Amino acid sequence: MTKNELFQRIATILHDTFEIDPVRITPEARLYDDLDIDSIDAVDLIVQLKPLLGRSLQPDSFKAVRTVQDVVDVLFGLIREQAA
């Protein structure tokens, strides 16, 4: 899965789960400041992302995540790690 495909899947999850206008979902969009994703929503997002990996995601992996692109990068790294 490419980073662009991951971004598209994450954008769909953000729109479907949190009813965020797709126009607001950009790689640079900050989860808390721009998209109003709070800590409870972040946990919900991690649960929604689990099927992309087929296994549980460790919340620690997402400590430094601030933007949508950060989420893409972390997931991409986890997918590559799992494939290795």
Automatic annotation (TrEMBL):
Span of the signal peptide: none
Record-listed O-(pantetheine 4'-phosphoryl)serine modification sites: 39
Keyword Lipid biosynthesis listed: yes
Residues annotated as domain Carrier: 4-79
Pathway terms, separated by semicolons: Lipid metabolism; fatty acid biosynthesis
The entry's keywords: Cytoplasm, Fatty acid biosynthesis, Fatty acid metabolism, Lipid biosynthesis, Lipid metabolism, Phosphopantetheine, Phosphoprotein
Annotated compartments: Cytoplasm
Gene Ontology CC: cytoplasm
Residues that span the membrane, as ranges: none
Modified how: 4'-phosphopantetheine is transferred from CoA to a specific serine of apo-ACP by AcpS. This modification is essential for activity because fatty acids are bound in thioester linkage to the sulfhydryl of the prosthetic group.
Gene Ontology MF, one: acyl carrier activity
Recorded family membership: Belongs to the acyl carrier protein (ACP) family.
Primary role: Carrier of the growing fatty acid chain in fatty acid biosynthesis.
Name of the protein in question: Acyl carrier protein
Organism expressing this protein natively: Pseudoxanthomonas dokdonensis
